[in-house]
Amino acid sequence: MTTASEPRPGQRPATLSDVARLAGVSIATASKALNGRQQVRAETRTRVIEAAERLSFSPNALARGLIAGRTGTVGLLTSDLEGRFSIPILLGAEDAFGSGSTSVLLCDARGDAIRESHHLRALLSRRVDGLIVVGARPDSRPSIGRALPVPVVYAYAPSEHKDDLSLVVDNHGGGRAAVRHLLDCGRSRIAHITGDPSYGATQDRANGALAELATEGVPLAGGRVLFGAWSEAWGRGATRMLLSQSPDVDAVFAGSDQIARGVLDALQEAGRSVPDDVAVIGFDNWEIFAAGARPALSSIDMNLQQLGRVAAQRLFAAIRGTMGSGVEKLPCRLVPRESTAPAA
Amino acid sequence: MTTASEPRPGQRPATLSDVARLAGVSIATASKALNGRQQVRAETRTRVIEAAERLSFSPNALARGLIAGRTGTVGLLTSDLEGRFSIPILLGAEDAFGSGSTSVLLCDARGDAIRESHHLRALLSRRVDGLIVVGARPDSRPSIGRALPVPVVYAYAPSEHKDDLSLVVDNHGGGRAAVRHLLDCGRSRIAHITGDPSYGATQDRANGALAELATEGVPLAGGRVLFGAWSEAWGRGATRMLLSQSPDVDAVFAGSDQIARGVLDALQEAGRSVPDDVAVIGFDNWEIFAAGARPALSSIDMNLQQLGRVAAQRLFAAIRGTMGSGVEKLPCRLVPRESTAPAA
DNA sequence: TTGTAGGCGTTATCAA
DNA sequence: TTGATAACGCCTACAA
């Protein structure tokens, strides 16, 4: 006599038919009992449930999906997992789905259109209920297709097509918030050192910063936005330049935390104290980078995890029939730390 | 007359039966034609293929999986996606699978055992062909279960159970390599500043370092390993301590790149030049952190992406019947940069 | 070369 | 309250 209470590796999982047989009922009854249908005698239900537990029965989601027409599965198509911006979004989406009963199929296209369409095909063939497309750069990207059998939500990088639904970071608002904070800290000679000007996000942040300065009638220190690269080295170099041209600067809004770290280094090198002489605020709130800086770096957080969560919610709504469209901007959040303490 | 060449959203995807009807053949023939079976007339095959394309037919993977007993899907169960070590592993695995026709179901347990078992249940019910379990910390963790119907491979954090197959980083070898490199650079007064001593990896790296020193009969500068926290702040503090106690130190092996950044800062503060006076090597090779340092930081790379790739390969082999067991250690890799240039 | 029929595991409908 | 039975979409003997 063998006890079948523990499935061994290589052994086929128990089916509903196994459960029914062990419980001495028909397959139909077993199904009803396990799914909480009301048309089952309590005693029978108990017997079926016990049998299911004895066999470690777990219903075959494939068979279920085949009938239901839904798989409880969504595809997450990213362009660049290596980049650190996709991860929090993915995390937020996984969180929102995983707490329910939706599973996430992950694909990374590595920025390659061919790979992307290959993955798209695979996902559709797996009959995902919907798709989230996460871009690597916050610039608009080609629509993945307007005639797909499932709803699609774009996150971070918006679709070029206006009928697609895209969720993006409000970089303009983030830029405003950064400058607002510096103004609130009593600064009035504010410079902006930022990264690659070919990014839409770079322009948005800069424009937001300029707009906020304009509302107060405060001119930009240095006279112009210092565009460059997303590196610490550029942060250092730009700061040296800035100090020689506008030595009276009392605050710097850096376009990224990396740049901000460079700014901090260069200021220290020049004997300027932060935040007493110069306040510095970064962007991205890359925790480990910002919190480890000396002094700890104030920053603007893009709330990417929240972005992922909202993307999941929107996709869910779309799956249930309520499909939106257009570009939805989600707000940034100020995270003040030591580098912007109010001037004494 | 309607043309059905483009499926619209909300419209059910074409089935094999649709294709067969359009091509004027039976379902069986359509199936054979599309799957390259030989028992089909060339002209018929062409007709079927054209019909399939007209309808954008893509075979339902659920139905296929139901028959085949395999789903072409694996589960990736991570404990902590936020931590930056899971990502490269995930990336490597996704890469190895994605180039074939296997899709990855991603779950993040957030370090919570309840969530983990919930996700495990979901994955098994989706009939994944196998599982990769990625730990957050490189210490051994409880086996996810010895009686699962599918093979499991543990990556980064090994399973406590010796019959499970685990792939881990050779931290001991990494520690050796770091010290070997410093010795090769002509240093002889080498200190080791590292992080949380409760991590097995911390001990392994330290022991590796000591072992390598021992082979050359070189004593550890400072007399003992400086354990602390995985932070820049600890790197700075420990370095100050070290300089006051052992001012003649000429090299520091830091247990992480973050710590190494702190070491660099403190050395600069103390007027020591890197690498001329003191060579510094980190661990993790966190590109953006190491390459952005001044001078660029030499480091030990754990080859995590390769680890993920190998995990995928081992899982694949296991799915095909060749299941291994025990702990397999994968080598680290030295990445020399400017911070360890040979002493003049 | 083509078509018919059975079955994969589940749910839902309807009859008993 | 229970149990046959027909789907879901596909593949694969086997029959024509």
UniProtKB/TrEMBL annotation, chains A, B:
The keyword Cell membrane does not apply. It comes from the Bacteria. The keyword DNA-binding applies. This is LacI family DNA-binding transcriptional regulator. SMART domains: HTH_LACI. Keywords: DNA-binding, Transcription, Transcription regulation. Residues 14-68 form the HTH lacI-type domain. It holds the Pfam family LacI. GO terms for molecular function: DNA binding.
